[in-house]
Amino acid sequence: MKSHWKTMTFGRALQESLERQGLVRRIREQEVLQRWNELVGTAIANHTQPTRLRNGVLWIQVRDATWRQELTMMRTGLIEKINDALGASVVEEIRFR
Predict the structure, then answer these.
(1) Is 97 a residue whose pLDDT tops 70?
(2) For the whole model, what pTM was predicted?
(3) How many CB atoms lie within 10 A of CB 76?
């Protein structure tokens, strides 16, 4: 009789479990917030603070209007840079406060 159980590594089993529960995306969202300085560079990080990332929308607190305007023009490039660094499409939209 053939077994219906398939074998896999613990790491793969954990990954599949996280995916089924929708937690992989949440983990990647937290990674953006934690790695902010590395992902956007020192110049941008010195004038901004990511406040939250949910369902692909990243909210960023900007220290002044000049930087807000500059980042608005850089929005598409920032999204691509962040997603490339993470190897996944985590950020779909950026909003500034």
Answers:
(1) yes
(2) 0.78
(3) 9
